[in-house]
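In this section we walk through a basic example: taking a raw amino acid sequence and producing a predicted 3D structure, encoded as discrete structure tokens. The instruction is simple. Fold the sequence below.
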Amino acid sequence: MIEQLIAAASEGVEARRSQTPQADLESRLPGRGHDRPFNEALVRPGLSLIAEFKRRSPSAGEISATATVAGQVEA
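The resulting token sequence is shown next.
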């Protein structure tokens, strides 16, 4: 099972890598703004939260196609 997940993930990475060159992705980084201050969350005193929002899981499939970030945060 884990071997299948690894193989599928590797295939996905290769497919995405062939669609968008790394230099193109790197050129987009400065324009991202400050929406996601990951580094700040790691060094800021007190409690910080780093979360991931997913509508699908590779192993479980569909979680919730209609879920929104705002709705999950409110819940």
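Looking at the output, two observations stand out. The chain has a mean pLDDT of 81. The two ends are 33 Å apart (CA to CA). In the next section we compare this with other chains.
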